[in-house]
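S., here's the first fold you wanted:
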Amino acid sequence: MADQRAETGTNGGTEPGVTDDEEARRHYAEKISPFVERFAADLTEAGMQRMASRVFACLLASEEGALTSAELSERLQASPAAISGAVRYLAQVNMISRQRDPGSRRERYLLHHDVWYSTLLNRDNVLTRWTATLRTGARAIGEATPGGRRVNESAEFLRFMQVELEALLKRWQETHGASDHHPPPPGTGTDTGTAPDTGESPG
């Protein structure tokens, strides 16, 4: 038995003397972290906050799509304060939810199942507000003026995008069964409605 443990490693590790935790950390560093940082850089370039991008990418690549603050801090080598700010932002834009395990003060941060569907659905609401504001502005400026025509054309383009987006989301829902995986509305389901903490029990 001793020889077998020496060959397989502690707790069934793949190398002698390598624990499961050590193997998991090495796997993350070698295989997952490069993707997380690359995708986070893409999201940051597109306008998302840098730490929020890293947290989102880390959750996306995780085994269960859910991690505690401490786990995120370890994987991203970031401070608890930085993680707290990032998850607060992601919760505000309805990309993640917070869940407190029964009997624990520690929270886990869960990626919504159809996160891209949810994000685009939220963007549809933003387009509605932008279009209304632009149309009001075009009338105030004067629709016959160069500025008014430019603003009105912007409103027409955004309305076109909204109609196409609604059709696209409907097709996704019909083909992928997205209706079965929508996240709960803010304040319900797994969302605790409390401010994110550091993920550690006090004291």
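And the second, which I think is the more interesting of the pair:
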Amino acid sequence: MPSDPYVTTPSPAADPVRHVHRFLRALARLLAAAGLAVDAYVHAKLADRYDPISASISQGDLFRIEAGLAALAALLVLVWHRWISDAFAWLVAAGGLALLLVYRYVNVGKLGPIPNMYEPVWFHDKWLAVIAQAVTIVAASFLLLTGGYRWRFTERRRARRRVE
């Protein structure tokens, strides 16, 4: 079917919904990266303080691992816009928050090479880590639920229908 030269289809760049979607996803990426950066900073800052608590591996080493994973996840969320980097950010934040809350409220004891990390008190850095991880979970959840791959797939499908 020949196309009518007088009928114009709006370009994807002119779609206001798409602009809002892209802005919200960019904002979510920044929030997730900021939350992960704060999480990395807090864990790196506290690592030396927790070195004496150890079994086969010290709690300070576990804090350094968490800081490294959070820093890597923040970098990936910012530079590699794929669902796998969003999922990795979500897993790092959710895992860190879950462990923080478990070891705050439950005396798990020593688990193999992992020391007893029970600490039934709240302090500023712990609150900061909880807030940062919660913000990251919300932002990464938004990124996962509104994945850009859906937009591209839909656009390809629409383009194929226009050609046919």
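Why I say that: Residues 127 and 133 are 10 Å apart (CA to CA). The mean pLDDT is 86.

Talk tomorrow,
H.
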